[in-house]
Amino acid sequence: RRNGIIKKAREISILCEAQVSVVIFSSSGKMSEYCSPSTTLPKILERYQTNSGEKLWDAKHESLSVEIERIKKENDNMQIELRHLKGEDLNSLYPKELIPIEEALQIGLTSVREKEMEIWKMHKKNEKLLEEENKQLT
Questions:
Q1: Domains in the chain: how many in total?
Q2: In whole angstroms, what is the distance from residue 80 CA to residue 95 CA?
Q3: Backbone angles phi, psi at 89, to 5 degrees
């Protein structure tokens, strides 16, 4: 039956040049769908909402939309900050805005040098151990 309904939707779409969308949920929860090639489901739902006057999106969806926009803006700001830390687009900044960037870079440089020293000491220690082991073997 499900395949028959989808087949009919396809036929209506072709024969009548109509925009058709069908979504079917079985009793087990499996979803089947068909949408005319000339459109998308969101476009059909938007058109339905406009023509029927019913609002399909509730307040929860609206708040999620606002949250998505907030996260996008935050992401954009972080991308700009990352470019600044990479040394790009610095000409547009005022000296007061450069100070925190300089401090962040200084802290990063210090931690890189500490890690470098740690690795260097570990290599020296391993080198001494290998020399001792080599002496014992000879």
A1: 3
A2: 17
A3: 55, 35
Backbone φ, ψ for residue 58 (5° rounding): -90, -175
Query: One-letter amino acid identity for 21?
Result: S
> What is each CA distance from 52 to 7, 22, 48, in whole angstroms?
26, 17, 6
pLDDT of residue 65: 80
Please name the residue that has the structure tokens 């072709």.
Answer: 14
Query: Residues 73-117: pLDDT tens digits?
Result: 999 999 988 888 888 888 888 888 888 888 988 999 999 999 999
Please indicate, yes or no, whether residues 51 and 61 belong to a single structural domain of this protein.
no
How far apart CA 18 and CA 103 sit, in angstroms, is 62
Over residues 58-67, the mean pLDDT reads 76
Cα–Cα distance measured from residue 37 to residue 39, given in angstroms and rounded to the nearest whole number: 6
Compute the distance between CA of residue 137 and CA of residue 22 in angstroms, rounded to an integer.
79
Whichever domain contains 40, its CATH number is 3.40.1810.10
